[in-house]
Amino acid sequence: MIPLCDLKLQYASLSDDINEAMLNVAAEARYILGPNVRALEQEIAEYCGCPHAVGVGSGTDALHLALKGLGVGPGDEVITTPFTFVATTEAIGMVGATPIFVDIDPLTFNMDVSQIESRITPKTKAILPVHLYGQSCNMDVVMDVAQRHGLAVVEDCAQAIGATWRGRPVGSIGDAGCLSFFPSKNLGCFGDGGMLVTNRADVYERVEMLRRHGGRVKYHHEVLGLNSRLDELQAAILRVKFRHLPQWLQSRREAAYTYNALLSEGGQIEMPQELTDSGYVTPQEDTADDSPAHCVYHQYTVQTDHRDELIAHLKNKEVGHAVYYPIPLHLQEVHQDLGYEKGSFPIAERIADRCLSLPMFPEITRAQIECVVDALKESYGSEAPQRAVA
Ligand SMILES: Cc1ncc(COP(=O)(O)O)c(C=O)c1O
What architecture does CATH give domain 245-379? Predict the structure, then answer.
């Protein structure tokens, strides 16, 4: 059996350090906004190239608070992608604003940034790009449009901590970046958790206040806030894991190269592409870097016209897989009131019908990747090569 993501293996490799960190929190008894939350905020802020970070209850809350902190509210419009997890539009709805979609780029799965400008109206307040599966959206265009029209930019980095755009960490390019520490994310805790990073002192101060009932001083409440604080226990766990993040991200890239090399031999599967200055590529090794986007492969997602058959075969072979996401957001029941219909965003709809994510985690071995690829090839009838058992 090959899992989609192996959290037990990750815990096993770090269990002594994580257990010690958890016991220290229990003994210290500083459970709310304690020293680990403060230290993690500093560590992540530095890693993301921002002066400020605020630990919150989840990635969804980070998005919600970023929009609220930037003053996005009822009647406003926020331009985003329909091909993302629902949390992206939930956050927009939570502040009373309306999501306005653009279609996506069929090769990177991210927003088709060339469509953003045509969707701007007098009500537009912000752009919310999502760095899907760990690859940065084209931030040159997003920032150019935002600056020319005076719009805020909130980056949804839930899947992309450590990814960069032209060498700049995602989250540090717009007005705020939102991270998720959901367990299966590239840096995940043992429950829910999230963080907002920002270069803007005003956004930091506002969100820091909003996350704890809207006040800076205990029992003095300046604005209507909420209770959304990253938990001290989760922060302690994340600080242990964070030390390994650069190595894990490199291992994810190497796993992607192995998939790319094996799938390109006689493939009927479309492999994920990285955007470079000279076009889209499917790299098989770290190359001299002309890539504006440095992808961290939260997911390794292929495209196929035969998804149902492949899934049946993968199930049979006990190979983990997932469809992220089967229904684009403009066709979800929750967004019926927006008035979109089938055909409104044909590329997002086509990708939703064809995408398939394969096992991807830092510890995945070459032998496991070979098994996944062999299972895929068997299912579409090409001869799986005989391999020596590792
Ligand atoms: C693209 C995207 N945005 C937002 C979120 C929300 O994060 P969380 O689950 O921590 O609330 C997720 C994660 O599930 C996500 O994948």
Answer: Alpha-Beta Complex (3.90)
